[in-house]
């Protein structure tokens, strides 16, 4: 049994078909429980007031925005090295999900920033690198749409993904090595001094689990769709050539 | 409903935008999955020549 068996489109669809109902269930349960817990049953923060409740959306969305790109990077590298179509299509499938997560992170950050920082936006290192990451998502999706040949599109988007990874990592670590800007340090830390209080931490963990399950479910579903769309294009082309 | 004080519009706005975007993403993904699956089934049903 090898992981490369899942590079077979039929095997991939059959396996993910079995997993999808469980993933949707976990996503709905965790998102529902985490958001209801966080919104209704956690106290206000002594400095942020009720805006602390935005953390249950902002932090998981930002995490997924970065990790979606890193997942696309791994899938692109697999495509470049091993030429497995499923990996290239999985990267393509993940891009819109990552882009929406980036928009949620940017929007909730701006909505939180207005009452807390007194501004919707600042050209802070982390915010700016996140905006650039969003533009990379748009460019990546546009490049897939612009090129008719699937293999050429996969090659070029893989290279773009490698370049964009710099900004994905930069948006994660910008707060650590640039001691300027408005954005505070990481909310999730193994250091008890820096981490958020337990009363916020546990519902946040449940929300993160929900976002991860939702991401995986969406990527599986969308990858299945890309596999089927590719086969449809191939069959139509064969018909035209016949 | 918890008392969100003077920040209510920001908190509710953040939840509305986020849940709206997630809902739209899920809807669009499921709708396209159904459409593409139907297109493939239609192409595969056609008689093949050659």
From TrEMBL, chain A:
Keywords: Cell inner membrane, Cell membrane, Cytochrome c-type biogenesis, Membrane, Transmembrane, Transmembrane helix, Transport. The chain crosses the membrane at residues 21-42, 54-81, 93-115, 127-147, 159-179, 199-221. It is found in: Cell inner membrane; Membrane. Residues 5-183 form the Cytochrome c assembly protein domain. Coiled coil: none annotated. GO terms for molecular function: heme binding; heme transmembrane transporter activity. It holds the Pfam family Cytochrom_C_asm. InterPro entries: Cyt_c_assembly (IPR002541), Cyt_c_biogenesis_CcmC (IPR003557), Cyt_c_biogenesis_CcsA/CcmC (IPR045062). The keyword Glycosyltransferase does not apply. GO terms for cellular component: plasma membrane. GO terms for biological process: cytochrome complex assembly. It comes from the Bacteria. It is a multi-pass membrane protein. Belongs to the CcmC/CycZ/HelC family. Required for the export of heme to the periplasm for the biogenesis of c-type cytochromes. This is Heme exporter protein C. It comes from Citreimonas salinaria. The gene is ccmC.
TrEMBL record, chain B:
Keywords: Cell inner membrane, Cell membrane, Cytochrome c-type biogenesis, Membrane, Transmembrane, Transmembrane helix, Transport. One of its GO terms (biological process) is cytochrome complex assembly. InterPro entries: Haem_export_protD_CcmD. The keyword Signal does not apply. One of its GO terms (cellular component) is plasma membrane. It comes from the Bacteria. Required for the export of heme to the periplasm for the biogenesis of c-type cytochromes. This is Heme exporter protein D.
